[in-house]
Design brief:
single chain, mainly alpha, 6 helices, two-stranded antiparallel sheet, hydrolase activity, acting on ester bonds, 3-stranded mixed sheet, 5 strands
Amino acid sequence: MPVVIDTIRQAAESLLKQGALHIIIPGILPSGCVPIRLTIYASKNKSDYDSLGCLKEYNTLGFHHNMMLKETVAQLQSTYPLAKFIYADYYEPVIQFLQNPNKFGFTVKEPLRICCGGGGPYNYNSSATCGQPGVSACSNPSTYINWDGIHLTEAAYKIIATGWLNGPYAHPPISFSVQEILNYSENIVTHW
């Protein structure tokens, strides 16, 4: 995992060298809750799953990756104080969706079930994926968290994007950073 985090840090520094001043660094999803992974790595051992029905091992890995990434974003911010680094969280919103799906408008009875798939416990079947003949989508995708076993639905992405723009899923929120840019630009213009 440190190699991945260091690669992300190097990429951010490379962008700085090319003139970027505002960099958004996204974390990763709780991959133990992704239907493709739940299907491929299904376990008969109930202790492998958490209370949400997600594979604990993969979520633990994702959680630690994101914690290391947050630390790296803080280090980058400290090292380059004239730049703005924003950590964009995928992990926490998806966990919140699964913990309380109705609060977010996801009314499907089984929150880990996908909208567009070809059967199986999560409606994900690697032999019958979304877009293939005979595979159909649900009638109301906005009530689902996951679209096809890999990607979230537009409704889920919209909530995450709004949380990145205004909080609480980005640190600091992107809209706050945009306002800083606008204020900075206005100051430059008024001082010319």
